[in-house]
Specification:
With 461 residues, the protein is α/β, with parallel strands linked by helices. The protein has a domain of 110 residues: Hexapeptide repeat proteins (UDP N-Acetylglucosamine Acyltransferase, domain 1), CATH 2.160.10.10. Helix content is 22%, strand content 29%. The chain contains ten helices and 38 strands. A seven-stranded mixed sheet has the order 5-4-1-6-13-8-18. A seven-stranded parallel sheet has the order 20-23-26-29-32-35-38. It has a six-stranded parallel sheet with strand order 21-24-27-30-33-36, with no helix packed on it. It is elongated.
């Protein structure tokens, strides 16, 4: 398709400490015992997009990720690893590799994305509509039920508030307004002149920006060059492009730039209509005539068209950008989203490696994973959890709704619930962990109990 592909693999995200460290960059965090980056690389490979620029923050992370990629995909992908500073941001990462971008269109994808929407579909829609930018939007997944370790325990699953406010035209193809992050916490204001230009705008608060974009290279590089302070694609570049596509149209109407706004309860200041998920504003609009013609999409000369590709609801789409997301995604992909992994569930609806060993009266429940060479002692119970490779687990251990990484030692009588235990951790006997994260190489002393704690060794500067 003559698209260049840039994968933004990040580095050691602060949101994921202590799961990430100097030794374990974000891109190599395990999802169903595979580095999260592998899911994006194989998604691209399936769309025959095999020539990639991989942007990594930090020299140490770049060396580790580059080494892993060259070993795992040596005969399958051509990957050029570019190192940028730790604070470059996603826009800064693109700016750093701008001189390598030569194709007419660029596909940009986050390395923490897990989805089954073919990137080729977004690329094809982008070309078909002759767009400046096309963004993949999807409905966030509803994670499967977690197992509770105690009877009558409260369901701690939290429904996150809307992360994005998105305005679409009546055909749901054109992106007319975006607000995300801190903007959503405040009054959301839309210029009335833009509403008039759009004719009808559907306001959505139920869609997630998947961080997979197609860009016209010329416009993208122009924006990155003209706006050196832009750090984020999602928060800076995309909103700027969306505003700029309508700016000339709005100004040509000669109308003052009045604004519509919503208050904290999600209601308009004029008509008090509730917009928790969807809301439609209608006016007489001239923009539609510029976007649509009798023979399809035409667009005004030099008009920057920002488009949306909305994934079907049955598609899976999530980003590993928080500790909660890490836990949810691991639970999803050894359950309802097993098709993403390439694994097949056993007759017991779990995945147990042939080399794993189970003691007597030990049970591994549905939607669980037990990695290569791991051993469980007698009378253990594993529910809705992923256990990595070469773990040594004693007797009478309960692991519930948790992720245990590689080479972990867990002694007798431990209880691990709704927690993440990183590689090479040693839990001494009778340890109780609830809602905890334990960083790589940490030793948890015998008999200790921890709730909602983050346990990690102090890294050397």
């Amino acid at each position: 398709m003559d698209f260049q592909v840039v994968v933004l693999a990040g580095g050691t995200s602060k949101n994921l400490i202590p799961l990430v460290s100097k030794d374990v960059p974000k891109a190599l965090l395990p999802v169903a015992n595979r580095p999260v980056l592998s899911y994006v690389l194989e998604l691209l490979e399936a769309s025959n997009l095999k020539d990639l620029i991989l942007v990594v923050e930090g020299q140490d992370a770049a060396l580790q990720i580059g080494s892993w990629v060259s070993g795992a995909y040596a005969d399958r992908l051509h990957v050029e690893v570019a190192t940028v500073s730790d604070d470059a941001g996603t826009a800064g990462g693109l700016r750093a590799v701008a001189h390598h971008l030569t194709a007419s269109d660029i596909l940009v994808v986050s390395g923490d994305l897990l989805c089954d929407v073919p990137p080729g579909a977004i690329a094809a829609a982008h070309r078909r509509q002759d767009a400046t930018m096309t963004a993949l939007l999807c409905v966030p997944p509803v994670s499967g039920p977690s197992e509770s370790g105690s009877a009558g325990g409260k369901d701690k699953a939290k429904k996150p508030g809307p992360q994005n406010i998105i305005g679409l035209d009546s055909s749901k193809q054109f992106l007319l307004f975006v607000a995300s992050g801190a903007e959503v916490e405040k009054d959301v204001r839309i210029q009335r002149s833009i509403l008039r230009a759009a004719g009808q705008m559907e306001i959505r608060a139920d869609l997630m920006d998947a961080h997979l974009y197609a860009f016209n290279r010329t416009v993208l590089l122009e924006v990155l060059n003209e706006k050196p302070t832009f750090q984020s694609i999602k928060l800076d570049v995309v909103p700027y492009l969306v505003r700029s596509q309508l700016k000339s149209e709005a100004l040509s109407s000669g109308e003052p730039l009045k604004e519509e706004g919503w208050n904290e309860n999600g209601t308009t200041q004029n008509n008090q209509s509730y917009i928790s998920e969807q809301h439609v504003i209608s006016t007489h609009g001239f923009l539609q005539q510029r976007l649509f013609g009798s023979n399809g999409l035409i667009g005004a000369p030099k008009m920057r068209k920002c488009c949306a590709y909305i994934a079907p609801k049955h598609k899976y789409c999530a980003r590993l950008n928080s500790i909660q997301a890490f836990s949810d995604i691991n639970r999803d992909v050894i359950g309802e989203a097993i098709h993403l992994t390439g694994y097949s569930l056993s007759s017991h609806n779990n995945i147990i490696h042939p080399t794993a060993e189970l003691g007597t009266k030990t049970t591994v429940g549905p939607h669980c994973m037990l990695g290569e060479g791991s051993q469980l002692g007698d009378k253990c119970s594993v529910k809705r959890s992923a256990i990595g490779r070469h773990c040594r687990i004693g007797s009478s251990v309960k692991i519930i709704n948790s992720v245990v990484m590689n080479h972990v030692t867990i002694e007798d009588g431990c209880l691990i619930q709704s927690s993440v235990v990183c590689s090479n951790v040693h839990l001494q006997e009778r340890v109780i962990l609830k809602d905890c994260q334990v960083g790589a190489g940490y030793v948890v002393s015998a008999g200790s109990q921890h709730k909602a704690d983050s346990l990690a060794r102090k890294e050397k500067a």
